[in-house]
Design brief:
With about 100 residues, this protein is α/β, with parallel strands linked by helices.
């Protein structure tokens, strides 16, 4: 399950970005639209001059569409962090 985190102090912009992300997925990567979740973090990210530096963080296990998802997110014009998960264990699944 790819998780796209939005790190931005402006909650309204986070809501707008969430809608944009799901609309882009529906139009360009419909295979992922039911797998992706979006998490909004109301956090202030600043550089040394105090300028806001909102960004996206994609956290996911290896997926054949990861490259396409990253290219899609780049169209939103924000910095992107990409973190690879070792595994994802869905609720209710058996673990060893």
């Amino acid at each position: 399950m790819p998780n796209i985190e939005i790190h931005d102090v402006n909650p309204r912009r986070g809501e707008i970005l969430t809608k944009q992300i799901f609309n882009l997925l529906k139009d360009k990567l419909p295979v992922l639209v039911d797998e992706v979740v979006v998490t909004n973090h109301s956090s202030r990210v600043v550089d040394q001059y105090g300028k806001d530096q909102p960004f996206l963080r994609l956290i996911t296990t290896e997926h054949e569409e990861t490259g396409n998802l990253l290219r899609l997110l780049k169209t939103l014009g924000l910095d992107i962090e990409y973190l690879k998960l070792v595994s994802f264990i869905p609720k209710g699944s058996e673990t060893s």
